[in-house]
């Protein structure tokens, strides 16, 4: 069940999210201590998320059917990331979902040429294919993330209830944000004090 609380704020992007839009996409369904925050919960939320990341043009509109498809792809991607982190084999339907998104449209940036800019490359954003195009770009990045050099550094945040993934910047990193790290350290300190009080 998806719970959206407007008062909740998302933590800063997890390490690796700026390099991999697929990681940012997977982390758009957040489990926070104060509740759940789904950044793709509504068509307006999904549109905003895509536009902010340059995956849809300003003025685009994603409808519920496409927002649902985005959320479904995200669920499959999270399964794939978890399998990669755990060294497990994911279910075939998760792999098939990613491959379907990859094959749905070209994610290549097309050549554009106009008076103020001259020649440049930009993605195609047909009005009725915004979500399909975005899913193809996300899927291509996900395939690179899962098979490329960052795959060995993929990790799941170890601070409960956080469910985000990250690309570790160093071997010891186990949290996706300072907020999660502080929460784990505070819980450990509390456990030590409680244990000391119990034995004294």
Note down, in words, how this protein is organized.
The protein is of the alpha+beta class and 200 residues long. It has a single domain (21-199), classed as Jann2411-like fold (Orthogonal Bundle). It contains six helices and six strands; from the N terminus they run αββαααββαββα. It has helices spanning 21-26, 43-52, 64-86, 92-104, 130-147, 178-199, and strands at 29-32, 35-38, 110-114, 118-122, 154-156, 165-167. The strands form three sheets. Strands 1-2 form a two-stranded antiparallel sheet. Strand 1 and strand 2 (35-38) form a beta hairpin. The protein starts with 20 loop residues before the first helix and ends with a helix.
Short characterization:
The chain has 200 residues and is α+β, with helices and mostly antiparallel strands. It has helices at 21-26, 43-52, 64-86, 92-104, 130-147, 178-199, and strands spanning 29-32, 35-38, 110-114, 118-122, 154-156, 165-167.
């Amino acid at each position: 069940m998806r719970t959206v609380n407007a008062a909740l704020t998302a933590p800063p992007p997890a390490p690796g999210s700026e390099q991999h839009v697929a990681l940012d996409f997977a982390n758009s369904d957040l489990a926070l201590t104060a509740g759940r925050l789904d950044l793709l919960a509504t068509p307006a939320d999904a549109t905003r998320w895509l536009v902010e990341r340059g995956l849809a043009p300003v003025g685009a509109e994603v409808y519920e059917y496409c927002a649902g498809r985005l959320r479904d792809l995200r669920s499959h991607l999270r399964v794939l990331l978890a399998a990669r982190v755990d060294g497990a084999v994911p279910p075939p339907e998760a792999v098939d979902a990613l491959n379907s998104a990859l094959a749905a449209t070209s994610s290549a940036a097309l050549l554009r040429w106009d008076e103020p800019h001259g020649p440049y490359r930009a993605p195609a954003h047909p009005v009725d294919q915004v979500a399909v195009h975005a899913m193809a770009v996300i899927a291509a990045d996900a395939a690179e993330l899962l098979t490329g050099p960052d795959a060995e550094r993929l990790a799941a945040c170890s601070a409960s209830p956080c469910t985000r993934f990250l690309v570790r910047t160093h071997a010891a990193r186990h949290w996706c944000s300072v907020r999660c790290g502080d929460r784990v350290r505070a819980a450990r300190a509390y456990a030590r004090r409680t244990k000391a009080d119990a034995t004294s």
